[in-house]
Amino acid sequence: MRIGMAGLGRMGMNMTRRLLKGGHEVVAYDISKASVSQAVKEGADGAGSFAEMAGKLTAPRTVWIMVPAGKPVDDTIKALTGHLKKGGTIIDGGNSFYKDAVRRADELSASGINFMDVGVSGGIWGLEAGYCLMAGGDPKVFKRHVPVFKTLAPKDGYLHCGPVGAGHFVKMVHNGIEYGMMAAYGEGFDIMNSSPYAGSLDYSKVAHLWNQGSVVRSWLLELAEDAFKKDPRLDKIEGYVDDSGEGRWTLQQAVDTAVPAPVTAAALFQRFSSRGKGEFSDKLLAALRNEFGGHAVKKAGR
To answer: How far apart, in whole angstroms, are the C-alpha atoms of residue 228 and residue 286?
Structure first.
């Protein structure tokens, strides 16, 4: 399939690479000319504008956008709308709020342009392992893009979750769960780090051990093992943990529907508290975010 990719950051560039390796043709665009040049070197067809991108795609045109949530998504969609004809499709693969997806689909329908929201999980490891894809939108539009989803995802790694908004909704809840899991690991290692046994414990080996058949085994523990191998006591980073919105949205959804979510709430508030005096648990959360998503960490002493 021939598809446009708008946004060549950490995720967009690796998704472009995976699509190219899977035999798809990608027309790549980014505000960074250097990123476009890199994509071209690796086999993509570069575009210097949305008009050029549209000109290099065949009808019905599809453009997958990977830009930060909020205004950047709206600006990108607005810029694309004039270049995509009726029957074209815009796929938002970023971490957008699901209600924004519903609004955007309604706005695009007047122009006859399809909209799909696809939550993407996999971080910087997705190029090798594949991306978990949670899609929302018209079933017929989804079916037309299955070849792309199959290439980006591992086996059984994509799902049509329902109408527009469902994809980003499921991804939002996924990230809320992630907050709680990471907080639990952080607290556990903090308890060990404050214990009489701290001096004898190798945290990378503990994380590795727990992944050998224990009930708390997970990919996050694999990442914790890697983080501790690089920095055994996480002395090189500050315990400052940012949040990108999904935890807040998940908690707000819980409030709106009167669903008790104390773990998600506590995990989100823990991130807020980390922005004062960071504890060891916060250092592990920061390290895990860096391991799976390449999110920046604050270096110790700065």
So the answer is: 12
R_g of the chain computed on alpha carbons? 21
pLDDT at 302 over 60: no
Residue 265 pLDDT > 70: yes
Whole-model pTM: value is 0.90
DSSP letter for each residue of 111-135: TT-EEEEEEEE-GGGHHHH--EEEE
> What are the contacts of 191-197 at 24+ separation with CB within 8 A?
193/233, 193/280, 194/280
Q: DSSP string of 265-297?
A: HHHHHHHHHTTSS--HHHHHHHHHHHHHH----
For the chain, the first-to-last Cα distance in angstroms comes to 47
Give the count of beta carbons closer than 10 Å to the beta carbon of residue 73: 23
Catalytically annotated residue among 21, 41, 86, 171: 171
In the predicted model, what is the mean pLDDT of residues 59-76?
A: 96
Q: What SS3 state is found at 106?
A: helix
58 bridge partner residues: none
Q: What is the mean pLDDT of residues 208-216?
A: 98
For residue 282, pLDDT beyond 90: no
* pLDDT mean over 137-160: 98
Question: How far, in Å, are 53, 62, 222 from residue 111 at the CA level?
Answer: 19, 14, 46
Nearest to 177 by CA among 117, 141, 135, 134: 134
d(CA 152, CA 242): 28
Question: To the nearest whole percent, how much of the chain has pLDDT over 90?
Answer: 84
Cβ(105)–Cβ(127) below 8 Å: no
Residues sharing a CB contact under 8 Å with residue 298, sequence separation 6 or more, in sequence order: 237, 238, 240, 286
| Active-site option among 41, 99, 150, 178 | 178
Residue 171 annotated as catalytic: yes
